[in-house]
Write a structure and sequence with these properties.
This protein is mainly α and 331 residues long. It has 14 helices and 5 strands. The chain folds into 2 domains: 210 residues, HUPs (Rossmann fold), CATH 3.40.50.620; 82 residues, Tyrosyl-Transfer RNA Synthetase (Orthogonal Bundle). The protein starts with a strand and ends with a helix. Bound molecules: tryptophanyl-5'AMP (TYM).
Length: 331
């Protein structure tokens, strides 16, 4: 049976964190055997915020290294850099003709960026969801493992695909956001303010590159409260977030024990955080060390990127041929 096609991407705008890992990369690794996978570094998307491009370049290497360190096998998946696949830019152009200013202006991420960078509201920012749709549709992917924050972009990608199909013929399947059986994930910041993110409050964000002491310090500072007073009460979201992290990095018995302590109101958050910190150190340490070693091996990195780009371009070229045929852009 033909494997379903999967695609996802990460912007190289900073150090990867646990939100990226649990919202996205963990699923990439789980999907790599059973699906036909394309994973990439979205360096074109990063240009919308005018980063220092020297730092961006190093960040691209780091994201590739971190993906491999987390368990992605470049021989099983196509792991590539967006700008190495120019076919995406051509599809972006066609899709731009089907995307409307009104809907783009209403996108939540666009509105956030207008607030954050009022002096740089460029057209690339406005059409960010169109480029993202091109990333997905260029491989005719059907499953897109992402965190909750990307849900609206996926909905827009489906709209663009549908509009294209309606106007030019049935070329694209409709891609769906994916997370194994569960709802999409949102890892909150450790201070309880919004989602964990690459650029906001660094003390409340656990990076895959953090050293052991930083991990301990950040977790011990995570927001808690005086604890539950009524048995089996609902957890506030910042406590739920710490339990989510514990469920992922700690042994089941450990998680269950703290869960029980919470339910019978005997939990001591100091002990809880100490345990979480140690389990988190044990989880992040091997990833950090492996990623650093790969990042220093530029020969290996270039080889991975080249191999990934070749696989991605083959698939992208095939789609683009169909697209051109459908639009009658062949003479
Ligand atoms: P980016 O780089 O912001 O994030 C990469 C992935 O990590 C997920 N994520 C989170 N998940 C849970 N909790 C969090 N706190 C958290 N923070 C980030 C994101 O949902 C994402 O899956 N626009 C995309 C990159 C992109 C893309 C694509 C993704 C470009 N083209 C095509 C999928 C398909 C972005 O900025 O992700």
């Amino acid at each position: 049976m033909k494997k379903e096609t999967v695609l996802s991407g990460i912007r190289p705008t900073g150090y990867l964190h646990l939100g990226n890992y649990f919202g996205a990369m963990r699923n990439y690794v789980k999907m790599q055997n059973a699906f036909n996978c394309y994973f990439f570094v979205a360096n074109w998307h990063s240009l919308t915020t005018h980063p220092d491009t020297k730092a961006l370049q190093e960040s691209v290497f780091r994201v590739i290294a971190e993906n491999v360190a987390c368990g992605l096998d470049p021989n099983k998946v196509a792991l590539y850099v967006q700008s190495d696949v120019p076919e995406i830019a051509e599809l972006y152009l066609y899709l731009n003709m089907l995307a409307y200013k009104g809907e783009l202006e209403k996108t939540t991420t666009f509105k956030d960026k207008v607030r954050q960078q009022p002096d740089n509201v460029n057209a690339g920012l406005l059409t960010y969801p169109v480029l993202m749709a091109a990333d997905i549709l260029i491989h005719r992917a059907v499953k897109v493992p992402v965190g909750k924050d990307q849900e609206q972009h996926l909905e827009m990608a489906r709209n663009f695909a549908e509009r294209f199909n309606f106007r030019y013929g049935p070329i694209f399947p409709e891609p769906q956001a994916f997370n194994f059986g569960d709802n999409l994930i949102k890892i909150m910041s450790l201070d309880g303010n919004g989602k964990m993110s690459k650029s906001e409050n660094q003390m409340a964000t656990l990076y895959l590159a953090d050293d052991d002491d930083a991990i301990r310090k950040k977790i011990m500072k995570a927001k808690t409260d005086s604890g539950p007073t009524v048995p089996n009460s609902l957890k506030p979201d910042y406590i739920e977030n710490l339990f989510t992290l514990m469920r992922i990095v700690s042994k089941k018995e450990v998680y269950d024990a703290f869960q029980e302590n919470y339910n019978n109101c005997t939990i001591r958050y100091g002990d809880f955080k100490k345990q979480l910190a140690e389990d988190m150190v044990a989880f992040i340490q091997p990833i950090r060390e492996k990623a650093a070693a790969i990042q220093n091996d530029k020969v290996l990195l270039h080889q991975i990127m080249k191999q990934g780009a070749e696989k991605a371009r083959e698939s992208a070229h095939a789609t683009l041929q169909e697209v051109r045929k459908a639009i009658r852009m062949i003479y």
